[in-house]
Design a protein that fits this description.
Blueprint (H helix, E strand, L loop, with lengths): L6 E2 L7 E3 L15 E7 L4 H16 L4 E7 L9 H10 L6 E3 L4 H5 L4 E2 L1 E5 L4 E7 L4 H18 L22 E6 L5 E5 L4 E7 L15 E3 L4 E2 L33 E2 L3
Parallel strand pairs: 3-4, 4-5
Antiparallel strand pairs: 1-8, 2-5, 3-7, 6-14, 7-8, 9-10, 10-11, 11-12, 11-13
């Protein structure tokens, strides 16, 4: 019976890497591991849903799976490296991200829509490509099959992944959202990047930057109130499982599992 020829994964190249501690990674660094390349862009809601779908897989298969975000921007402002770095932090992306501003990797892997997922096996061959949301269950089955196959062949290598978290910024708040004035005069502010609420009290006008919020002179007075982490949520496609973050609203309509159209 005829079999399709295997396709070697194109080498990963881009402007820069994030979440790697300054290292430029290559496919050789992933040899022996299952790899999911997530072609995304930070203004695409479908891409953000897929980030949530991938988190349980990263946790379950942490010693054999590496997720690599390939940021291939759709709009001009998404090419800004500072905006990308901010989005990676704000959306809690805890895996390496390759900045692909000219869509070189997008074209090499024949992506047609945001998001697109390409799966590379432990020997460096592309074994699956899929677009849109809702592939978590199929990906889990595929990873299980790859683990069984490559453990039997001796080509699976377990161990820690290449993710290196960036240094935590020394700021009172990170991406603050809505602020609510409390009865006692304090402010309750959503600290979006940390998924928490911070209660702030009026501060001294001569307070240092770490004790102030902008020019209003406020500083933290009580521990943050921790909100549920996105990694503990259910399916990102179900509005019923989404926490209502301060200052945000969610559509009651079931989100689409389609994707944003790409370039032809």
């Amino acid at each position: 019976m005829a079999t399709s020829p295997r396709v070697r994964a194109p080498e990963l190249r881009g402007r820069s890497w994030l979440n790697t501690g300054g290292r430029n990674l290559t496919l050789r660094d992933f040899r022996g591991r299952c790899v999911i390349l997530d072609f995304w862009t930070f203004c695409c809601i479908n891409c953000l849903h897929v980030l949530d779908e991938l988190r349980p897989l990263e946790e379950k298969y942490g010693d054999v799976l590496v997720v690599v975000g390939v940021h291939s921007p759709k709009f001009e402002h998404e090419k800004d490296p500072d905006a990308l770095a901010a989005a990676v932090e704000r959306y809690g992306v805890h895996h390496p991200v390759l900045d692909d501003p000219e869509l070189d990797m997008w074209q090499q892997y024949a992506a047609k829509a945001w998001p697109t997922l390409s799966v590379v096996d432990p020997e460096g061959y592309v074994v699956a490509t899929m677009a849109g949301e809702g592939h978590a269950e199929g990906l889990a089955r595929l990873i299980d099959d790859l683990i069984a196959t490559h453990e039997a062949k001796g080509t699976l290598h377990r161990g820690d992944g290449p993710y290196v978290p960036p240094a935590a910024p020394e700021t009172t708040l990170r991406f603050p959202g809505k602020a609510v004035l409390l009865d006692g005069g304090n402010l309750l502010v959503s600290d979006s990047a940390r998924h928490s609420l911070a209660e702030l009290a009026p501060g001294r006008r001569d307070a240092g930057p770490a004790d102030r919020l902008g020019a209003s002179g406020v500083g933290p007075t009580v521990p943050r109130r921790r909100l549920p982490s996105p990694s503990r949520r259910g399916s990102a496609c179900s509005p019923r499982t989404r926490p209502r973050w301060p200052g945000t609203t969610w559509s009651s309509r079931t989100p689409s599992t389609t994707c944003c159209a790409g370039y032809g």
